C-alpha cells in the first residue's frame, strides 16, 4: 500500500542539489499540464513509462489491500499516453473543449536514491479543477509514487503510481493527467 | 405531495406523467430529466418496484464474501452465505437504525453493529446482543429482529434484488432479454468473471440520459466520438454505426447489435480470441451463435439502469493492429435529479488467456471507465442536458423529439433473436420510445 514509510528509508536531504532538481522537474511538469501543453509534457516521459492509477475501495483496517491489483483508472504505457495526448490535440475532444482550468499543487516531496541514475520520488498532489460556469471547484488529492531517471536528455518520468484519497472520483471524467 | 385520489399519478402542480411523455409519438418533456419530485417518485414507483442489479457472482466467490450496494436508494449488503446461497440485506441495524456495514467489500462471518453490538448472521438473523438477558429482562425475542431481506434471484452470474414482494419473478421480468444476456454475459461454459472492483465516479446528469443512450442511441457515435475517427479507432462513414438491428423488449429493455457495414469485412464474433469462439460454439444455440457472429458493437440496457457494452475497438497504438473486444457492465445509480454515481465493471471470459484478459481490460480502461476517451464525451453530453433543462421555459414549453424510425417498418427480417420490435437499423429511436414508455407506465400507476 502507498503512504507506508519504511523507518529505514533514507531520504535525500532537502538541500541536496538532486533533490532540488527533482522538485523542479515536478513543478515544471505541473506547469505544463496546467497550461494544457500536453505535447511538451510528453518530452518528460520515458519511453519505458508505466502510468498507473488503481481503483480504491474502503476495507476494514486489518486488510491492507485498499487498492485494486486488477482494475485501474489508468494503466498506461508510453504509446497509450501519446494516444491520449493525440486525442486532446484533435478538435473533437469535447470533454475538455472548452478545457478545464486545473491547477496542480505538488508538495511533501521525498526523494531517495534507487541506483546511480534512478530515484524513488514520492509527492502529494492536490488538483483543483474548474470548468465552464461552475462556481464550485472539483478536487482530487492523491499520493504519487514515481520513479524518475536522470538521462543525458534530462530527467524523465519512468513510472508513476497515483493513489487517490477518494474511492469515488468526484468528477465526471479523468481526461487530464495527474 | 402526490394527489392519490386520482387514478393517474399527478405531480404537485397537477401535471400528469402523460402530459410529459407521449412515448408512442416520441415526444418527451425535458422536465423528466431535472425535477426533484420526479426523482423521488422514480425511487418509489420504479426502483422500489422492479429488480435492481446489485452484483456479479464472481465479485463474492467465497462463503462470507460481501459487497455493499444499493437497491433503489436503500443501502444493502450482498453476501454469500453458502456456495449456492446469496442474500441481500438492508444495511440498517434493526435496533436504532445504525449503518451496519460501512465498507465496500470484504469477508466476514457476521455483521456487528458498532452502536450496541447487535450481531447478525449472513442470512440477517440476529445472533445476539450484549447482555441481552440482563438489559432487556427477558423481553428480548431476537427472532423479531432479523434484518430486512430482499428477494434475490440470479441469472447468468448476475445478481438482482428487490424489496417488492409482489414483483414478478426475475425470469419473467427479464423475458426476451435473457436470450441476449446469454449471448453477452454467459457465452462460454465457465462464464464470465469481473476483474477487480468497479470504478466509481460522479456525473452531474440524470440517470435516464445514460440509460437511454445505451438502450437506443447509436446515432450519436460519429459526432460525440469523432475524436475516435480522427485517431483511426472508428471509420469516418457517418452511417457506420447504423448497420445492425435494434431490439425493443417488454418491460423497457433494449439492445442494439451493430455489425459490419455492407462490403466492409469486420472480424466476426466481436473479434474474440479463437478459443473463446470455440467455447461459445459449445454453449450457445445456433440462432445465438449467428447473432454473436454478426456482433461488432453492442450497447444495451436492462430496465431501468443496468447497461452493458460489448464492443471491439482498435487500440490505436500500432500501425497494423487488430481490434480488441471488451465487455463492460454499468449501473447508473441515481443520486438526485441531476446526479448519478456510475459504477462500471469490466468482465471477461474465465477461459480467456491471461494475456487477452489484460489487453481487453486495458482497451476498456482507455476508452471507457473514468479516464475513458469515449466515456468522457458521453458524460459531457449527459451533463450538458442536465444543465439546460432546469429552466421554467424548458420544463413547461420545450418538447424533445425521439422520433427517429417512427415510420419504419418493423420486420424481423432474418434476425435470429427474439424481441417485441426489431428494427433493421440501429439508427432509430425505437428503444428510447420503448424505455420511456415503460418508465411512464410505471410512473403513472397508483401504488
How would you explain this protein's 3D organization?
The radius of gyration of chain A is 17 Å and the shape is globular. Chain A contains three helices and six strands, in the order ααββαββββ. By secondary structure, chain A is an alpha+beta fold. The two termini of chain A are 19 Å apart. In chain A, strands 2-1-6-5-4-3 form a six-stranded mixed β-sheet. Chain A has helices spanning 17-34, 38-42, 78-89, and strands at residues 45-56, 67-77, 101-113, 118-130, 138-151, 154-164. Chain A has a single domain (17-164), classed as Nuclear Transport Factor 2, Chain: A. With 447 residues, chain B is of the alpha+beta class. Chain B has two domains: 52-166, 3-layer Sandwich (Rieske Iron-sulfur Protein), CATH 2.102.10; 175-444, Naphthalene 1,2-dioxygenase Alpha Subunit, Chain A, domain 1 (Alpha-Beta Complex), CATH 3.90.380.10. Helices cover 27% and strands 26% of the residues of chain B. Chain B is built from 14 helices and 22 strands. In chain B, strands 13, 14, 15, 16, 17, 18, 19, 20 and 22 form a nine-stranded antiparallel β-sheet that branches. Chain A binds chain B through residues 53, 55, 57-60, 63, 68-76, 79-80, 83-84, 86-87, 90-96, 167-175, and chain B through 102-106, 195-205, 224, 226-227, 229-231, 315-318, 341, 346, 361-362, 365-366, 369-373, 375-377, 379-381, 383.
